[in-house]
Design goal:
By secondary structure, the protein is mainly alpha-helical. About 65% of the residues lie in helices and about 0% in strands. It is elongated and about 60 Å long.
Amino acid sequence: MKFINYLESIAGISVYPMASLLLFTTFFVAASLWAFKADKKMVDHISRIPLENDDTNPQ
């Protein structure tokens, strides 16, 4: 018996794919809106963080 047969036997399983699609779409739209409305100076600062030389954190 294949795995899909086990899933088909669970009552109400069809709700989970729709819920996960809705969750992903909501997150993607929210992240896109934030990216387009974010302050350009803040985005530029965040993009340079990995390249900055930080002497306060010795390794």
